[in-house]
User: Fold this.
Amino acid sequence: LASKSKKVTTSENLCRLNTTICIAHFLITLDPDGTDFMPYMLLSLLQGYNGAAMVSLAFLLINSWVTIVDGGKAKKTPPWMDKLTKFSISFVIFVEIFLAIVEIIVVPEDVASYDGTLNAIKGFMFAALCMLWAGICLKYYLKIRAQLKSGAASSGSKAIKKYCITLLFGMLLGFMYKVVFSFVRMGTKVHAYPYCGGVSLVSIINLMFLIIQFACLFAQNPSKVTKKVAPSTGATTTSE
Assistant:
């Protein structure tokens, strides 16, 4: 899993993040409703961690693509991107984990409920970050497309262009999801689970976790000897 270099690579970070996401999701599935033995606070903490970890995967990938395009021959990450990535990861940890706990604490008289206004503020903050990174995806998608047309791009840039547009739509969907639900929840107290049963948002969240876990596993699948383009580097690699 680790390279011989002292510097941790993007692929290693992706692998480690996906591993912790899988572990956290396993714990969530032991009591997905937080009604048997797992406190709702702990369940919310695990869900918040997974949300922060998953969006951090996107930040790390975009960081590596910017490094490929603007890093020069040394492939050194531009200082602004390095700082933005660190800030963004710290920011989503604060929003998705710390504020997720606070929004529950402020309504202690009810079980599995949280403050809708605080959740809405959290959503707007997250949405703003999504738009920022969507803009970066769009910028480098257009830049790589121009390089491909001029013949100045590397062979892996074509794949990176596809990854950029994919993450662009992902960030836009994240923005829309957060904004829509933030407006709905403003000024309310939200119950995490329907009183009459049925499908709750928790079910949708768990499905989202599974999809992203399998996507990460597929992107780094070592089970076959094939030549493919690594999402984190854009380089053609052989895996076995």
